[in-house]
């Protein structure tokens, strides 16, 4: 029942974030909160125009300038949109400046952590039950590595797994980053869908990675790990591992319902000859268990010959079984760390693998970050220097495969990588180079 004039007077004292929030109350408030006069004042106080859109001859002209064509010739909400677009553009400019320097070893931006902080980016998971109700989980711990960020969500009030149908992973950015430093979920924010997972028959449709005394781990492709309490068969935590390559685009440029579509790769102009295979590739490999790093290294001058092309894949040998000078030890006790509000633990024989394969120009060619597990092999080591049990780790997606062999040395209590091979899909190579293997 309050007159619109009084509401407009009250709204004129609000800041941009408060105006956006009050506009969500009802249609009447929405239209009043779109007033160009209020938003032009906010816009003018934040962004000084390079040239004035009116001529100011005296103080009187300046006071009535807001009633000029800048207001009357614009549709309601015009200056609100201009203000939001300008704020977003300013943040994007700052983020682009941070991601411009590139690490020569990883081929990725050097300041990913700073860029994520500058953009105000965070990640949430939304669980939808069979009745359509959404449960938003926001509390998360972040762990930054050279080429990925690991996110751990945990809570004491997870919904029952039996009633859940889907899990969605979103990147979330504040609509006005500079004004939205308060992480409150009531602030205006924008969601970008990264991935969607179906939770029906989770234990049957996913890959079991391992277990400790309290939880069982199940892997969902791509890059998501769900921990279930053993006794209750309910969610204990969810862990996501996101590779930096195109992370900002996936986390900010998608919509709330549609994932961001990656642009097609333009063929690299090169002297690639199907008769000779690939050459000049480099690999940056990171093996970690959330907080602990077990191996971090770069391997250069990788290549394959014509004989290495078979069964739809090109083989790149990184560590050879025959060349013991390149065999690598893993530092620390291999396992994947987890924690909740009340408990924490470590699941042995599984970890997160970050692979960043660069082409001969130093451009990221194949990148992923995913949880993997080690499996005891039936064969014994035939190497004189390494007598012990052999473990294997395999990973595969639509673009390639990774095969790792490790030997456990009981005397020194450590693993050694004795064989590491990448298999790149011929289709991936053909699309990348515009050639035909």
TrEMBL record:
GO terms for cellular component: SCF ubiquitin ligase complex. PROSITE patterns: FBOX. Transmembrane segments: none annotated. Residues 1-42 form the F-box domain. Signal peptide: none annotated. Gene3D superfamilies: 1.20.1280.50. This is FBX15 protein.
């Amino acid at each position: 029942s309050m007159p619109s004039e009084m509401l407009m007077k009250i709204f004129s004292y609000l800041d941009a974030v408060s105006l956006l929030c009050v506009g969500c109350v009802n249609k009447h408030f929405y239209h009043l909160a779109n007033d160009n006069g209020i938003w032009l004042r906010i816009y003018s106080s934040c962004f000084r125009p390079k040239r004035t859109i009116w001529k100011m001859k005296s103080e009187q002209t300046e006071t009535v300038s807001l009633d000029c064509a800048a207001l009357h010739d614009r549709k309601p909400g015009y200056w609100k949109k201009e203000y939001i677009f300008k704020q977003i553009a300013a943040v994007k400019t700052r983020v682009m400046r941070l991601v411009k320097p590139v690490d020569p070893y990883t081929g990725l931006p050097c300041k990913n952590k700073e860029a994520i902080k500058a953009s105000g980016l965070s990640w949430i998971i939304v669980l939808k039950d069979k009745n359509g109700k959404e449960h938003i989980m926001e509390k998360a711990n972040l762990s930054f590595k050279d080429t990925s960020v690991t996110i751990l969500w945990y809570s004491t009030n997870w919904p029952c797994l039996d009633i859940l149908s889907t899990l969605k992973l979103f990147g979330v950015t504040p609509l006005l980053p500079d004004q939205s430093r308060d992480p409150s979920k009531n602030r205006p924010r924008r969601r970008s869908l990264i991935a969607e997972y179906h939770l029906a028959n989770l234990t049957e449709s996913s890959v079991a990675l391992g277990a400790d005394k309290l939880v069982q781990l199940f892997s969902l492709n791509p890059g998501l790990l769900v921990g279930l309490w053993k006794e209750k068969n309910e969610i204990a935590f969810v862990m996501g591992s996101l590779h930096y390559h195109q992370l900002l685009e996936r986390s900010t440029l998608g919509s709330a319902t549609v994932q961001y579509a990656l642009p097609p790769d333009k063929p690299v102009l090169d002297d690639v000859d199907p008769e000779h295979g690939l050459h000049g590739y480099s690999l940056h490999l990171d093996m970690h268990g959330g907080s602990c790093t077990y191996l971090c290294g770069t391997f250069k001058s990788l290549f394959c010959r014509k004989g290495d092309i078979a069964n739809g894949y090109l083989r790149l040998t990184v560590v050879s079984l025959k060349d013991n000078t390149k065999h690598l030890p893993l530092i620390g006790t291999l396992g994947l760390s987890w924690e909740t509000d009340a408990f924490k633990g470590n699941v042995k024989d599984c970890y997160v693998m970050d692979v960043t394969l660069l082409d001969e120009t130093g451009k990221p060619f194949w990148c992923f970050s995913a949880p993997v597990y080690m499996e005891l092999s039936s064969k014994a080591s035939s190497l004189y220097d390494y007598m012990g049990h052999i473990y294997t780790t395999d990973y595969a997606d639509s673009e390639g495969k990774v095969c790792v062999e490790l030997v456990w040395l009981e005397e020194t209590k450590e693993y050694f990588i004795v064989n590491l091979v990448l298999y790149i899909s011929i289709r991936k190579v053909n699309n990348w180079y515009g050639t035909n293997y």
